Amino acid sequence: MSILSVTVGSAFSRSTRWERAYAARLLVTDIVVVASAVALAQYVRFGEAPTSDSMMSRQLTGFSVLFVLLWTSALSAFRSRSTRIVGAGFEEYRRVLSASFWTFGAVAIVTLLLRLEVARGYLAIALPIGSVCLLLARKAWRGALARGRARGEIQTSVVAIGGRAEVSILACELTKNPAHGYRVVGIGIPGYGEGRGEVVAINGRSIPVAGDEAAALAMVAGGGVDTVAITDTEHFGVQGIRDLTWTLDALDVDLVVSPGVMDVTGARLVMRPVANFPLLHVEKPQYHGAARWGKRAFDLIFAVIAILIMSPVMLVAAVAIKMTSQGPVFYRSERIGKDGKPFKMIKFRTMVQDADRQLLDLVARDQNDFAGGVLFKMRDDPRVTAVGRWLRRISIDELPQFFNVLKQDMSVVGPRPPLEREVQSYDGAVSRRMLVKPGITGLWQVSGRSNLSWEDSVRLDLFYIENWSMISDLVIIAKTVRAVLAREGAY
C-alpha cells in the first residue's frame, strides 16, 4: 500500500499544483482589484490619495487598509477561490458577490454603531466598482483556464464506474465540453470481469474498458487518476461505498457520485441527512407562486426600458423596411403561449410579402433544413430581403416582441415561442414547455440560435423551465447581448 500511495500521491501532487497556482493568482488579483477600488473611492470621495501625508489622509488610508483586509478575508471565508467551483457555473460569481455584500453590510453596521465619520459615498463608489471588477477579473481567469483545458492542459483524469448505459452518459457529459477539463481515462462495468481490450467511443475519443469495478480500482491504484466517478451506488451498497471512500482517501483520489438526475442544477439539489443516512432532495421548480410575480415585474420594467432606449433604432428599421420592399412593416406570426393559448408574435418583416405561401415549396426542395421534421431553417432563404437579412444578423427584427411582453403574451427570457404545428407534435415531456411564457431570448438563443437541432432546442428549453431563477435570467440576457454583438448563429 505504501508504494501505491506514493505513486498515486505523486500524480495527485502534480494535478493539484496547478490548482494551488491558480488559487494564488486569484488571490493576488483579488487583492489588486479590491485595493484599487478602495483607493479610487477614497480619492474620489475625499480628494485624498492614499500616498498623501496629511493627518486626514493617514486616517482614511488606515481605514481603507482595514477595509481591504476585511474584503479579501471575506472572499476567502466564502471560499470563492475553491478549486471545486472555479471555472464552471454561476457558483463562483455568486460567492464573490455574497462576500462583497457581506463586507459592505458589516462595514456599514460598524461605522453606524461607532459613529465613524465615513461618508456613504465612499462605500457607494467602492462596492459597485470593486464588485464589477472582481467579476470581470474572474471571467478573464476563467477564459484563460478554459483555453488551457481546450489545449489538453490542466485536465482532471477520471475513471468512471457503473452500468454500461449510465457510465456512457456520464462520460459523454463530462467530456462534451473540453473547457470543463475532464478526461475519462477508463471505464469499469460491474459484472464485466477482466478487461478484454474493449473500448467505448465517446465524443470522438476511445475510452478503454478496464473491466469490472475491481479492475477499474486497480487502474486507479496504478497512478495518474485524479477522480473516481460512480453511477451505481446500489451495486456497492452502504458498506462498499464507505470502504471505497477510505481506499480513495488513502490514495489521495477524489470520489464523486452521480445522483442519477439529468438537467437539474445544483441549486435544486439539497442533501438532507436522515438518521445518519444522506438523502438527496430535489426541490420543485420555481415557476409558480411569488417567483412568478417577481419575474412578471422584471419583465414589465425591462420591456419599458428597452422600448424607450431602442425606439430610435426601431424607427430607422421601420423606415428602411417600408422604403425597400412592398408590404407592412410588421409581421405577425401566430405562436402558442403559456397553457397552449395562441397569440400574435410581432416582429419586423424581414421577408417578401408572400413568404408564407412559398414555405411549402422550399420544404419540398430542401428537406435537410427541416430539423427533426418540425423546424424549418434555411441558411440562404431566398425569401429574406436585403434589409431583412441585415436586421436578422443583429436581431433588430425581434425588438417589437417587447410589446408582446407588455401585453403579457411573452417574457423577456423563456422557451422559444413555438408554432402550432410544433405543438401538435409534442409528446408528454416536450409539452412542459407550455408551463411558462415563451421568451424573446433564452438558453436556445445563447447556445447556438439557428444552428441548434430540434432535440437540442427542446432540451435547453426544458432545462430552463426546470431550473429557472432570477440570476439565470440576468446571465442569459448578458449572454444574449454578447451573442448578438458577435452575430453568432443568426441567419
UniProtKB/TrEMBL annotation:
It is found in: Membrane. The chain crosses the membrane at residues 22-44, 56-75, 96-116, 122-141, 300-321. The keyword Transferase applies. GO terms for molecular function: transferase activity. Its main location: membrane. Signal peptide: none annotated. Keywords: Membrane, Transferase, Transmembrane, Transmembrane helix. Pfam families: Bac_transf, CoA_binding_3. The keyword Transmembrane applies. Residues 295-485 form the Bacterial sugar transferase domain. It is a multi-pass membrane protein. Belongs to the bacterial sugar transferase family. This is Sugar transferase. It comes from Mycolicibacterium rufum.
